[in-house]
Amino acid sequence: MRVPDAALDAVRQRGFVVVPGFLAAEELAAAQRALWLHYPSPDAYFADPAGHPEYSTSGFAGVLEFPYRSWDLNRLTFHPDLVDAAERYLSTPDLQLYKIELWAKYAGAWKYDQPLHRDYGSHSLVVPRVDGRYQQLTSFIYLSDVSEADGPTRLVPLEHSERVPFTPLYFEPGALDDVAVPAVGPAGSLLMYRTDILHRASNFSAPGRARFSLLVDYQARGTTWGGKMSWPKDSPELWAELLPRCTVRERDLFGFPRPGHEYWNAQTLADVAARYPGMDMAPYRESAGVDIDGPAA
Ligand SMILES: O=C(O)CCC(=O)C(=O)O
Questions:
Q1: Quick check: CB of 201 below 6 Å from ligand 1?
Q2: Tell me: the pLDDT tens digits for 72-82?
Q3: What are the DSSP calls for 111-133, one per residue?
Q4: What is the largest CA-CA distance in the chain?
Q5: Alpha-helix residue ranges (DSSP H) falling in the chain
Q6: Is the CB of 119 under 6 A from ligand 1?
Q7: How many Å apart are CA 108 and CA 47, to the nearest integer?
């Protein structure tokens, strides 16, 4: 669904918002099926927690970096309504998709409580500007219900934190707990918040629960001091499946050279086409002035 203007205003004024029903039912169901390509289902996990010790090594043990083994998961990171919301929030179509993580948590595997913090600490080399320029928009797409029992993210509304200095980054346990709001919502919801907003992960408060979410973060392209991951780093075989299916715009979000960029010439067109069988090179070729049979005269 289109993220309402009022939700983006809430991010501006309060620092965060939960948008229920962001994903259509079929998008959610397809993404949920794809989760089991990567994780044990809750039934499988809770039938034998000791058989899955890897989830008990840290609170981040269930984090997997992009890309994933299913288009149904991958496509959510550049869902047209998410890109539209990021464009409207950041006031530019010139976006960079700078972080994607898929995160599974299982009750009892770890005590997931975190200290209160702001995400700029791991998303930026500097600090947020309080006038709102150069913002980063972070999001969680809920792939399972997140109730009070499911370890919801607890966020401090801006009115209670705007005078709290940016340094130090981490706070003592219990700090501002009385004003923190649990970001609860059904599967398919979208949580959006800013990297200057105080928040923390919380632990499950009931056994047998699991939480699955897809974290997708955008900033304006050219924010050279911001980021969290480098896309070419991992899984060339998964990129080779993904990129040919993407539109030019979707590739652009990852920083792929645009049509018309001086990177493109006869050599790069041919070699990129060879690296990514099935990719429609026409938009890049046409803008480079290279015809279908080879270099332009
Ligand atoms: O998982 C959550 O609810 C929040 C995680 C978080 O704030 C973080 O890892 O920075």
A1: yes
A2: 999 999 999 99
A3: ------B-THHHHBSS---TTST
A4: 70
A5: 5-13, 25-35, 42-47, 71-74, 80-90, 120-123, 236-242, 248-253, 266-275, 282-288
A6: yes
A7: 13
Centroid of ligand 1 to alpha carbon of 234 (angstroms): 23
Ligand 1 pocket test target in 153, 203, 204, 212 with most atoms within 8 Å of CB:
153
The protein residue with its alpha carbon nearest to ligand 1, atom 5, reads 201
Q: Which two tokens stand for residue 200?
A: 């923390």
- Look-up of token digits 């996990």: 45
Please tell me the pTM assigned to this model.
Answer: 0.95
The rounded Å distance from CA 50 to ligand 1 centre is 25
Half-sphere exposure of 283 (CA within 13 A, CB side): 14
Q: Are 28 and 22 in contact (CB under 8 A)?
A: no
Ligand 1 geometric centre to CA of 58 (Å):
13
SS3 149: coil
Mind listing the domains of the chain with CATH numbers?
5-230 (2.60.120.620), 257-288 (no CATH)
* Average pLDDT in the chain: 96
Residue ID of nearest Cα to ligand 1 atom 4: 201
Residue ranges in the chain whose pLDDT is less than 70: 291-297
Question: How far does the centroid of ligand 1 lie from the alpha carbon of residue 184, in Å?
Answer: 14
Which tens digit of pLDDT belongs to each residue from 233-250?
A: 999 999 999 999 999 999
> What is the rounded distance in angstroms from the CA atom of residue 242 to the CA atom of residue 279?
10
219 near 137, Cβ under 8 Å?
A: yes
Strands of 95-106's sheet in order across: 16-19, 190-194, 136-142, 210-220, 95-106, 63-65
For residue 195 and ligand 1, the question of a CB distance below 6 A is answered with no
Give the amino acid at 18: V
